[in-house]
């Protein structure tokens, strides 16, 4: 296998691009890759993508054009990230992302839902206390 790097690609320090097992690992023209990124075997990164530092991309992932991947995101193998998609920092992506999609969180879900989940987490201790009190009053707990 080989690695094919397009024109105007920037690859930061300590980034590893694994050669393909069969065929080619490809980095598209104009893509910018920050420091400390791991790109697995047989990955195809489209044109004009931006990949922030400490991202891990597992083998055989297909990334479309104009995709943005935030710092410290992890992408599971054998999935597709559609053109123009956005992946938030520290996200764990286990499923394909459609073109134009925006995901974040761990596990990664639609960004709007991820924001609601993050806001709700701070309320969980109080909600659990309130449910226990209701159950106690109803003789259920």
Short description:
This protein has 141 residues and is of the alpha/beta class. It contains two helices and 17 strands. The protein has one domain: 3 Solenoid (UDP N-Acetylglucosamine Acyltransferase, domain 1), CATH 2.160.10.
CATH architecture: 3 Solenoid
The helicity comes to: 10-25%
Overall strand count: 17
Low-confidence stretches: none
Largest sheet data = 7 strands, mixed
Strand order of the largest sheet: 2-5-8-11-14-16-17
CATH class equals Mainly Beta
Report the CATH topology name. UDP N-Acetylglucosamine Acyltransferase, domain 1
N-to-C span = 62 Å
Question: What sequence of helices (H) and strands (E) makes up the elements?
Answer: EEEEEEEEEEEEEEEEEHH
* Secondary structural class: alpha/beta
| Helix segment tally | 2
Strand content: 25-35%
Q: Quick one: CATH superfamily?
A: Hexapeptide repeat proteins
Mean pLDDT: 97
Write down the domain tally. Answer: 1
Shape summary: elongated
If you compute it from the alpha carbons, what radius of gyration comes out, rounded to the nearest whole angstrom?
Answer: 19 Å
